[in-house]
Write a structure and sequence with these properties.
By secondary structure, this protein is α+β, with helices and mostly antiparallel strands. It is built from eight helices and 18 strands. Strands 1-2-3-6-5-4-7-8 form an eight-stranded antiparallel sheet, with no helix packed on it. A six-stranded antiparallel sheet has the order 9-10-11-12-16-15, with no helix packed on it. Strands 14-13-17-18 form a four-stranded antiparallel sheet, with no helix packed on it. Strand 5 (279-288) and strand 6 form a beta hairpin. Helix 2 (12-34) runs antiparallel to helix 3 (38-57), helix 3 (38-57) crosses helix 4 and helix 7 (143-174) runs antiparallel to helix 8. The longest helix is centred in the first third of the chain and has 34 residues, at 100-133. It starts with a helix and ends with a strand.
């Protein structure tokens, strides 16, 4: 649904917009009323700094935390230093006029300011990168980390060009030759545009430091066959999708004694991706720890059968002689927690926006009306830049474990879907699986809706 301007201004997003507008208005007024006055220039600089502070506080740096004030201050210094260095360099190149002495003096004055500004950029940028990434592995395993590497590479080249400019271009300018200075400075500005683009992309990506949890714990599932003759306990080394180690214990249902089987295998079927064919993994006997004086038999193997995150139906097949029994199990693989934002606008449903697993964009889910009983669940996909993300027919499930239920979706647009559902009070788990229209990329997002209970 839509929200009024008053509702928007009552949110944290609206507050940030108001403060930015006030600061930018002060910048415009000071420029219009007294551009040649030194006092007006100081007012302009102060107002611009305030606008930067409002912008920084509303971004990743302003996320709640024990070091929030220090992080906001570091990011503010970083952006101010970028404005002084890049903006000053562009203004210098456009305004180099007058006599040779005047041009040389302008170059010398800017050089004395640009060097410390660039040092501040490098130091504060490093601090922010370390705080956002936290681990070396995250530099290559996350989108945020890879963009940090690109930005760092651009800054290294910029620093090299700046050093060449300071020790070659500036002395040449004093000798009335601006060609080298202009060429090197032009390269700096082109690379600066690339670094600013990387910074803009970082603002749309969740830092790995906010994704709490690294390797999720292993999965455990137990079950018995229909005739209750055996009980099976399945354990995995990790809950993440991909290669995994599986261990199965088989015991007699009545006596609780270990069962020695001729063959034990697992059959895997993804519940959230109906089009994928089941796979099978044969387990080998292996000693495993257990209660009692000695080890009890377990069956294990390594395989990549749990290749996707989401719900899986696993059938353990235990064969003894000519007879075989099947034991149904269910597990839920999961990746590291994804970035989640919750928008609460008075009078509107609460909207949950979560980063899609695979890093392809975002999923927004909301219930309208958000109450117990009949409701409609909306699911909308969009990319990193807020544009519609077209997808094929997705699968939406509500609930978890044995109570999980697949809902019937109706397409409203190329990226939006709706399902008629019956909601229970409390926390309601919603998972959505989709693929690109071409079918070459899979997306998954899951959120927990808070549905008010009946009073």
């Amino acid at each position: 649904g839509s929200a009024s301007l008053g509702d928007l201004l009552g949110t944290s997003v609206g507050h940030a917009l108001v403060w930015r507008a006030v600061a930018l208005g002060a910048v415009a007024a000071s420029l219009a009323l007294g551009r040649s006055s030194r006092g007006a220039r100081w007012v302009t600089a102060a107002a611009a700094s305030a606008a930067i502070a409002a912008h920084v506080a509303a971004g990743h740096a302003g996320a709640p935390g024990s070091w929030r004030a220090a992080i906001v201050a570091a990011q503010w210094l970083h952006v101010v230093a970028v404005a002084i260095w890049a903006g000053g360099l562009a203004a210098l190149l456009l305004g180099l006029r007058g006599s040779s002495e005047d041009r040389a003096g302008a170059v010398r004055r800017f050089s004395s300011v640009a060097a410390p500004a660039l040092a501040v950029i490098v130091v504060t940028g490093t601090i922010r990168a370390v705080g956002g990434v936290r681990a070396w592995a995250a530099l290559t395993s996350t989108g945020y980390g890879r963009v940090v590497l690109v930005k760092a590479a651009l800054v290294v080249v910029i620093v090299g060009l700046a050093a060449a400019n300071r020790y070659r271009g500036v002395p040449a300018a004093r000798a009335a030759s601006l060609r080298l200075l202009r060429r090197l400075s032009g390269y700096e500005l082109v690379l600066a545009i690339g670094a600013l683009g990387a910074a803009a992309l970082l603002a749309s990506l969740p830092p790995p430091s906010v994704l709490r949890g690294v390797d999720p714990p292993g999965l455990t599932a137990t079950g018995s066959d229909a005739a209750t003759t055996v009980r099976v306990r399945l354990r995995t080394a990790t809950a993440a999708p991909g290669p995994n180690r599986f261990a199965v214990e088989v015991i007699d249902y009545d006596t609780r004694q270990p069962v020695v089987a001729d063959r034990v295998s697992l059959r895997f079927r993804p519940l959230d991706d109906p089009g994928i064919e089941p796979t099978e993994l044969v387990l080998e006997p292996a000693p495993g720890p257990g209660p009692g004086p000695g080890p009890r038999p377990t069956y294990g193997a390594v395989g990549a059968n749990l290749s996707l995150d989401g719900r899986w139906a696993i059938t353990a097949i235990v064969q003894r002689g000519p007879e075989a029994v099947s034991v149904p199990l269910e597990v839920h693989t999961r990746s590291a927690p994804q970035f989640l934002s919750v928008l609460r606008v008075p009078g509107d449903p609460v909207k949950y926006t979560v980063e899609l697993v695979s890093g392809g964009g975002f999923l927004r889910v909301w219930a309208d009306p958000p109450r117990v009983g009949h409701s409609r669940l909306y699911a909308t996909f969009f990319d990193r830049f807020g544009e519609p993300l077209p997808v094929g027919d997705p699968v939406l499930t509500t609930g978890s474990g044995p109570s999980a239920r697949q809902q019937v979706l109706t397409r409203l647009d190329r990226n939006q879907f709706v399902a008629d559902v019956e909601l229970a009070g409390g926390d309601v788990n919603v998972a959505v699986i989709a693929r690109t229209v071409e079918g070459d990329q899979r997306f998954r997002g899951s959120v927990t809706l808070e549905v008010p209970r009946r009073s």
